[in-house]
Amino acid sequence: MVWVLHIGLIALLSWWVFRIYIDSTLRPYFWYGLSAKILAGVGFGWLYQYHFQGGDTWSFFESAKILSGQFSQGPMDYLRLLAGNSMPEQLSIEIGYQGQPRALLMVRLLSVLTLVTGGSYWLCGAYLSLFAFSGLWALVNRIADNDPGSGKAAIGAFIFLPSVLFWSSGVSKETLFIGVLGYLVAWFWPNFKQQNHRKYLYWSLTIPMVLLLFPLKYYYMGVLLTVLMATILQKWLSKPNKSWLMEHGAWMAVFIILILGVSWLHPNLRINNLSDLVKTNALEIIAQTNEEALIVFRDNADPTIWMGINLPWAIVTGLFRPGIGDWGSFLKNLSIIEHLVITIFLVVRVRSLNKEDLLKPDWLPCMVYVLILAGLLTLSTPNFGTLARYKVSFMPVFVFLVLNNNIWWNKLTKSLP
Predict the structure, then answer these.
(1) Which residue of 7, 72, 244, 410 has the lowest C-beta tally within 10 Å?
(2) pLDDT digit string (tens) for 111-167?
(3) What is the number of other CB atoms lying within 10 angstroms of the CB of residue 107?
(4) SS3 for 52?
(5) Does residue 165 share a domain with residue 261?
(6) Alpha carbon 144 to chain centroid distance?
(7) Is residue 8 scored above 70 in pLDDT?
(8) Coil, strand, or helix at residue 245?
(9) pLDDT tens column, 159-211
């Protein structure tokens, strides 16, 4: 009975999202994309259950079930556990994740879903996949409204890119982030056509999303919010018809000022702590990674120098590896094929680049976002398997830039609706 109820509710919510964009030119892709997203969430859970024998997705779920079980002891006590920074020692031991506030926050958020779904991992994954898809659907439709010729590139990059489709589905932090990314960019990107009658709704939803997700994924959110705010401020401050050099220069100035300010929102984002944290994380992962899955960087005792000399290679690795020379496991080989296809499309796109492409106001913010996350995440996670999940934060943006106005992509998708 619980399953029937929730399947009906998921179907109702899906229909509601579809109806919001009923006039969209992209509507033929909606049900295919949503079905693929939910099925990918099932595949994600199955892979970790049977291939990886658990993993953090199942650990989060089991801990969330323990926490949600406290609701039966008293709803108010449960709410205090959700909102508070501490919990009884015995319960803390049962849940685990002592000294891991971000993991514990994920458990708290997930416990609400486990409570309402009757403790079903698969229903939790379906709801989270629906959230991620709805955010991305909002984004691709805003892109298509702003530039109809970019709609199919947006669909290919944000909805159907295999790595993004799979690794940002189901019960994971990345699923939450990709949904929030979609909504924030769709609602606030200054070059999109704005819907002023909904601005109060957007802000009322944005504030809790940011407050909840920033502690959970501060790397991702710090970069995303800074790029978004810099783009909005530059648009407000700059006079129209300025030269592209003035516009891009103004954007970089605003971005640098903001990045210094955002670095104080979380201790780990402060410039003097960042290099230490990145190298410490890297060393911990290196110690637990077998040679086949390891990304090798040059060593240096000083964390700042280490980060500086390895950052260019980290960016290349984050965007284009694993490559043919990294051939190995089945999952790794699938990633190699995807990266090879992306690289081919990139070569085609670069060959057809013109001055107008580089003068577009969105080009610089998108590339800065991609390059920063590609570098930092690859440096701090020198493991191909783990990095495959983290890359969903920036790869769809990069692939969109590659596919948009791409001659080959346009020919391949010409016959599609």
Answers:
(1) 72
(2) 999 999 999 999 999 999 999 999 999 999 999 998 889 999 999 999 999 999 999
(3) 24
(4) coil
(5) no
(6) 20
(7) yes
(8) helix
(9) 999 999 999 999 999 999 999 999 999 999 987 776 666 778 888 889 999 98
Shortest CA distance to 214 belongs to which of 277, 272, 271, 262?
262
Token pair, residue 209, equals: 């999303």
User: Would you give the DSSP letter of residue 269?
Assistant: G
Collapsing DSSP states into helix, strand and coil, what is residue 383? strand
| Residue 370 structural domain | 219-412
Confidence of residue 25 (pLDDT cuts 50, 70, 90): very high
Cα 81 to Cα 77, 305, 384, distances in angstroms:
6, 43, 36
How many separate domains does the chain show?
Answer: 2
Q: Rounded CA gap, 352 and 314, in Å?
A: 27
Query: Is there a single domain that holds both residue 407 and residue 300?
Result: yes
| Alpha-carbon gap, residue 353 to 252, rounded angstroms | 22
Write the CA distances from 307 to 311, 373, 378, integer angstroms. 6, 13, 11
Q: pTM for this structure? A: 0.93
∠ CA 101-388-392, nearest 5°, is: 75
pLDDT tens for 144-154 read: 998 889 999 99
| Spatial distance between the Cα atoms of 274 and 377, rounded to a whole number of angstroms | 12
The 10s digit of each residue's pLDDT in 342-381 is 999 999 999 988 777 777 778 899 999 999 999 999 999 9
Looking at residue 3, what is its pLDDT?
87
The number of beta carbons lying within 10 Å of the beta carbon of residue 303 is: 18
Residue 38's contacts (CB-CB under 8 Å, 6 or more residues apart) are 10, 125, 126, 129, 130, 133, 169
